Amino acid sequence: MILVYRPELENPPMDSECTIGFSFIQEKGQPSNINVKSGVNRDFPESVWEQIKSYDVVKNMLKLGALRVEEEDQVLAPDPEASSNVDSIADMSVTQAMRLVEDSFDVAQLKSWETKEQRIRVRNAISKRIAAVTEGNG
What are the start-end ranges of the H helices in 78-137? Predict the structure, then answer.
């Protein structure tokens, strides 16, 4: 299982190099710690996910899109043509819109979305994506 943590999407936004940690008391009374680093956490233990997914903080991060769970077979190379077929992202949820913005490499399309978009978080993500693509960091 893959766990993707994007602390900049939290409310309030955290530093992009951030780690969240969870502690569990084991049978022998010794604590067990698990850390989730920002970015992609591959091979995240499913047993740990089953324990933490019911926590309110985890539910909130999932709702905001700051935490995302993906299975290995879901991870495919982004289709650069998929985002260019969408005229507006204003009707999408914030999470869907942010994912589409992240996957887009078309600056003209991003600018088109930016002019129609009213949500500040999505507009900020579009601006950051345009900068990343034009500066060669995308």
Answer: 80-84, 94-103, 107-116, 120-134
Q: How far apart are CA 41 and CA 19, in angstroms?
A: 11
CA distances from 5 to 9, 100, 116 (A): 9, 17, 28
**Exposed e or buried b for every residue in 77-88, given b needs 16+ CB within 10 A?**
eeeeeebeeeee
User: Each residue of 19-76: pLDDT tens digit?
Assistant: 888 888 877 777 888 898 888 888 888 988 998 999 999 999 898 888 888 876 544 4
Q: In this structure, which amino acid lies at residue 58?
A: V
Give every CB contact of residue 18 below 8 A, 6+ residues apart in sequence: 5, 7, 38
Largest CA distance in the chain: 59
pTM, whole model, 2 decimals? Answer: 0.55
